[in-house]
Amino acid sequence: MAQQEASSQPQGFKNHIQNVAIVGAGGNCGKFMAEALLGTGKHVVSAITRAESTTQLPDGVQVKRVNYDDQSSIVEALRGQDALIITMGVTAPKDQEAKLIEAAAEAGVSWVFPNEWSPDMANESLAKDTLLGDGKKKHRDLVAKLGKSSWIAVSTGFWYEWSLALSAAYGFDFANRAVTLFDDGETPISTSTFAQVGRAMAALLSLKIHADGEDDDSPCIDRFKNGYVYVASFTVSQKDMLESVLRVTQTSLDDWKVTKESVQGRYAAGMEQMKRGDRMGFVKVMYSRVFYPDDSGNVEKTRGLQNDALGLSKEDLDECTKIAIRRAEVHGDRGY
Question: How far apart (Å, rounded) are the C-alpha atoms in residues 29 and 24?
Answer without folding.
Answer: 8
